[in-house]
């Protein structure tokens, strides 16, 4: 009796995993490559496949393997998204480039200010000239 | 049990379809998409090996699946680190 219930539970896990994997596969195929930021959408779909894989491992009497992958799957997903964001994402590169330009401009203005601070004598001369004109 | 065997075969079919989808992702033009495709391909192969070993009572399939899972994760994280560093060069 217990074996029968356990077998039905196992087969339920496997069938649910199969359905989830099929749905994710269809979704990934239907996505267009020209879509903006499609890689994050695909990563989101593949998260479903990760959990379906964990469910399949439970159904196949491999709970330790399922636990290991349950811990590792989010780490891998985050690593891949992070790599794309900082490595290949064009929008992020543009924003990073504009940030760099802003920081460079700030540095140059500070440098000019320092130069001006060092030329106190010229300032004093120009002030004297203005006073003379008045 | 019959229902367990049938469900295992259903899972195998869906995994084969998913492997084809993973190949489609892998052959995309961006590097990160190839990384994602290869990572999911290794996951699919590992589960397929588990199912096959469970049907035919092959013990070493579980060992290969464990190695694929762990080494696939390590390789994916390592490549992600390298891909992230590309920007700073």
What does this structure look like?
Chain A is built from 5 helices and no strands. Chain A has helices at 2-30, 38-59, 63-87, 90-118, 120-133. In chain A, helix 1 (2-30) packs antiparallel against helix 2. Chain A is elongated, with a radius of gyration of 31 Å. By secondary structure, chain B is mostly helical. Chain B is built from 3 helices and no strands. Chain B is elongated. Chain B starts with a helix and ends with a helix. The mean pLDDT of chain B is 89. At the A-B interface, helix 1, helix 2 and helix 3 of A face helix 1, helix 2 and helix 3 of B.
Sum up the structure in keywords:
heterodimer; A: mainly alpha; B: mainly alpha; 87% helix
Provide a quick synopsis of the model:
With 134 residues, chain A is mainly α. Chain A is built from five helices and no strands.
Query: How large a portion of the residues of chain A is in β-strands, by DSSP E?
Result: under 5%
**Element-by-element helix/strand order of chain A:** HHHHH
Strand tally of chain B is 0
Basic shape of chain A: elongated
Q: What is the number of domains of chain B?
A: 1
* Count of structural domains of chain A: 1
- Through-space gap between termini of chain A: 109 Å
């Amino acid at each position: 009796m217990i074996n029968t219930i356990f077998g039905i539970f196992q087969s339920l896990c496997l069938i649910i995993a199969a359905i989830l994997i099929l749905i994710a596969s269809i979704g990934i195929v239907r996505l267009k490559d020209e879509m903006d930021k499609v890689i994050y959408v695909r990563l989101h779909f593949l998260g479903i496949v990760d959990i379906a894989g964990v469910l399949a491992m439970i159904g196949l009497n491999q709970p330790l393997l399922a636990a290991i992958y349950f811990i590792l799957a989010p780490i891998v997903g985050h690593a891949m998204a992070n790599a794309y964001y900082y490595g290949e994402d064009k929008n992020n590169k543009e924003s990073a480039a504009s940030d760099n330009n802003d920081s460079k401009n700030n540095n140059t203005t500070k440098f000019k200010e320092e130069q001006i601070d060092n030329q106190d004598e010229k300032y004093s001369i120009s002030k004297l000239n203005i006073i003379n004109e008045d | 049990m019959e229902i367990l065997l049938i469900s295992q075969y259903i899972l195998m079919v869906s995994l084969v379809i998913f492997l084809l989808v993973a190949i489609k992702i892998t052959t995309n033009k961006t590097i990160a998409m190839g990384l994602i495709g290869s990572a999911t391909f290794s996951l699919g192969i590992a589960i397929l090996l588990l199912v096959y070993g469970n049907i035919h009572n092959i013990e070493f399939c579980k060992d290969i699946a464990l190695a694929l899972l762990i080494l696939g994760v390590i390789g994916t994280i390592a490549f992600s680190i390298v891909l992230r560093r590309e920007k700073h060069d």
